[in-house]
Design brief:
By secondary structure, this protein is an alpha+beta fold. It has helices at 23-32, 61-67, 78-96; strands spanning 2-3, 9-10, 12-16, 19-22, 39-43, 56-60.
Length: 98
């Protein structure tokens, strides 16, 4: 069990001494072959502890960038998203200065 930079837990497997890979990548490769260059493996249901082969999907890094971008939302929402980010930043700044 490992934890990424955002605090999300995931499984990893040691394939050689000091070489660890995410378990999702190993399972994908065992069932579907190598991961194409410029692609990543994602969890369909968003649960990083569910490494079942039918819960894994190979997508391009471009598609992943779009999935994580605010540009996927309708244009009417963008000002609200920016305002929310500014508000959260001010709250954190205030909490930090206490």
């Amino acid at each position: 069990m490992r934890t990424d930079q955002r605090g999300h837990q995931y499984y990893a497997i040691r394939i050689k001494e000091r070489i660890w890979v995410p378990l999702k990548n190993k399972i994908w490769q065992d069932h579907n072959g190598p991961i194409p260059a410029g692609h990543i493996i994602i969890y369909i249901d968003g649960n990083s502890l569910n490494c079942e082969p039918d819960n894994l999907k190979c997508i391009s890094k471009k598609e992943n960038m779009y999935r994580n971008s605010i540009m996927r939302f309708p244009k009417e929402y963008l000002p609200l998203i920016h305002l929310n980010a500014k508000l959260r930043k001010q709250i954190k700044k205030h909490e930090y200065n206490k």
